Structure formats: C-alpha cells, structure tokens
Amino acid sequence: MVDGWPDAYETVIAPLLQSSRAGRATRLTGFAVALRGPDGTMEERIFDTDWSPIRDEAGGVAGALQTLIEATERVRAQRALREKEERYRALFERAVDSIWLADQDGKFVAVNPAACQLLGYAAEEHLRLSMFDIIRAEDLPRLRELMKALAAGRHVTELWDIRRADGTYIPLELSHSVAPDGQWQTIGRDISERQRAETALRQSKELRRIALESGGMGAWRWDTRNRMVRSDAPFQRLWGMSLGDKPHSVSVYIDRMHPEGAVALEAVMARPIAPGEDMQDQVQVAHGPTAGRWIQWRGRAERDKPWIINGVQLRHHRAETCRAKIARQRGASGNGTEAHLLAARFGGSARDRGEWTGDL
After folding, report:
1. What's the pLDDT tens digit per position in 159-176?
2. Which of 72, 191, 223, 309 has a 20 to 30 Å separation from 302 between CA atoms?
3. pLDDT tens, 196-237?
4. For 195-353, CATH number?
C-alpha cells in the first residue's frame, strides 16, 4: 500500500502511463492507497485502473485514457469471504466430529479427515460414494423422507447405522441441514460407547430388578452364544470371586463347578434356546473358598435374543445340608444311592432339585 497519491503516482501511475505511451494497454486491479478521510485519519482505499493509449491520425501515441474505479468494498468483501472460507476449512479439517457435504442427490462433494477415519475410507474413495451407499438397504425409504425434509428447510437429528469400509455398521448420531449454497451438510458423532454404557446400565438395573422380584440372592446375564456372563457382587461372592461389573467368561464358573454341573451348563450353550424359555437347575461349587456349596438358579431367555439368559441365584446350601437332604431321600427311597440321587437332580423332578418361586 502506497502512502497517498504522490507516492501512488511514483510507484503505480507513472509506470502505467509509461506503458501507455509505449502503445500498450494496461490494467491493474486491487492496488491500495492510503488516503486521509473526512475525520483526518488515514485509511486504506483500493482501486482498479485501466490505461489505454490514445493514437493520432498517424497511429502514434497522442495521450492515454485512464479509468479509475474504487474497489474498496468489493475487495474487503472478497477478503472477508476468503478469510471465512479459510477458517471454515480449518475447522472442517480439524473437527473431531465427522462432517460430510453432499449435493441434493446425496452424492458426497467433501468429507473431512475425521469422517474418513471413522468409516475407514481414503478421501478419494469416500468421494466416489453417496449417502445411499453407506446406509442399510431397509433404511432407503427413511433416507428419501429425510431428503424431503431437508428440501423443506428442516434441520433433522437422527440415529443411523452407517456402513464402514469393512462392511460392518456403526451407530452414529447424524445432524442434517442444508447450507446456504444448497449443499447437504451432515455432522456425525459415534455413539457406540454411549450405547454400550446405556446397555450396561440397563442390564445392571434389569439384574437388580430380577433379583428383587424373585427374592434371589444374586443376579446374572448369560450370553450363551459368546460364553460371557455379567453378574452382580452377591452372585460372585457365592463362588468366592470378585470380578467387577464387566462381562467375564463363563469358564471362570465352570472351572469351579462340579463336573456334572459343568456338563449341564455346556449342554445349555450347545442347544437351541426358545424365545422366553424358562430354565432352572442347581450346581455344586467344587473348587475355591466356597467349595461344597450348592447353588440353585433360575433363568429366562430373552424373546428377541434367546441366546441371552437373564437369571438369579435363588438359594444356596452348604455341603452338610445337601448331604443331609440326600440321606433323607435315600431313606425315603429305601435303596437309593448318592450317585443315583445326584443323577436324578439333573434329570429328575423339581422336588429332587428343590423348590423355589419368583417370576422373571
């Protein structure tokens, strides 16, 4: 920026005038001059200027025609827009949340690094896709309804399952809106951890509810497909363990269980389980600090996920109590043996296993 017209003449106008005298037309845009304003302060003013030679009848240069147009407001607006775009680009590139920009047909026109990392695509690969490519097939009608809502100017926040590059789906909270230029803008946040925490809290509350309603002394949730158990502290204490609230392998219980009980538990995990199926049994702790204890349990398979069984431990007895019960049963049967009665416990009547109540 030159300081006032005298400097502008020396540094800007004189070279243009010289070029015009040489017969060349010249254009200069956006040159800045410091001029004194009405209040006496110096301020920047920006101009565009054109210089064209004026020729005489013989074709020589007789003078120059100058056009001077003030462009201060235009240049400032362009500068502000450029700075705004640079700030937006920086936010777009550095954002922790995933951001997608798509045209009105759902074709991606820009994706930020967080979106690429979340879904496992390279940027070039991601830009070849559209929203239709990364949702479940059954959600296509829902996507079309969303596009109608956006066309009507609505801002929509919803939960979607979005397909990753490896074919798996991830739950995202997506906030959709339409930018002033008509592009579809979506900001996404991975809610997997939140859903897991909510599920864990819900399961923990369900276990407590089951235990309270059934009069049980401990509660558990058994995933027979993945051989994992989530149990509460009272149930773990019956087995002489402290495993915390996180899921753990059913093997930690099987390892402390009498072989007959272990076989029965393995049989449950090996067979199909009907939705809502009720089951009950009792097992003996054979190893660890609570060895000799008998534990009665009752469970019910979930209706939508029958391989998940929610249950409670209803009653436990010390080994001496069980031996006394076996002796009474042997006396009642006359010629029963302990081995026979133990076998009957797993395949006999409810009377042999012990009675208990409690609706799950």
Report:
1. 999 999 999 999 999 999
2. 191
3. 777 766 766 665 665 555 555 678 889 999 999 988 888 888
4. 3.30.450.310
Phi, psi of 167 (to 5 degrees): 90, -10
The three-state DSSP-derived secondary structure of the chain is CEEHHHHHHHHHHHHHHHHHHCCCCEEEEEEEEEEECCCCCEEEEEEEEEEEEEECCCCCEEEEEEEEEECHHHHHHHHHHHHHHHHHHHHHHHCCCEEEEECCCCEEEEECHHHHHHHCCCHHHHCCCEHHHCECHHHHHHHHHHHHHHHCCCCEEEEEEEECCCCCEEEEEEEEEECCCCCEEEEEEECHHHHHHHHHHHHHHHHHHHHHHHCCCEEEEEECCCCEEEECHHHHHHCCCCCCCCCEECHHHHCCECHHHHHHHHHHHHCCCCCCCEEEEEEEECCCCCCCCEEEEEEEECCCCCCEEEEEEEEEECHHHHHHHHHHHHHHHCCCCHHHHHHHHHHCCHHHHCCCCCCC
Q: Could you tell me the pTM of the whole model?
A: 0.44
Please tell me if the domain spanning 2-78 has the same topology as the one spanning 195-353.
Answer: yes
192 has pLDDT over 70: yes
Highest mean pLDDT, choosing among 11-20, 198-207, 282-291? 282-291
Cβ atoms of 293 and 283 within 8 Å: the answer is no
List the domain boundaries for the chain. Answer: 2-78, 95-190, 195-353
pLDDT band at 187 (very low <50, low <70, confident <90, very high): very high
What per-residue confidence (pLDDT) applies to 160? 93
Least confident of 21-25, 125-129, 353-357: 353-357
> Which of these CATH numbers, 3.40.440.10, 3.40.50.1820, 3.30.450.20, 3.90.25.10, describes 2-78?
3.30.450.20
**Nearest to residue 284, comparing CAs of 297, 276, 294?**
294
Name which of 168-172, 187-191, 280-284, 334-338 the model is least confident about. 334-338
Fold of 95-190: Beta-Lactamase (3.30.450)
DSSP β-bridge partners for residue 44: 34
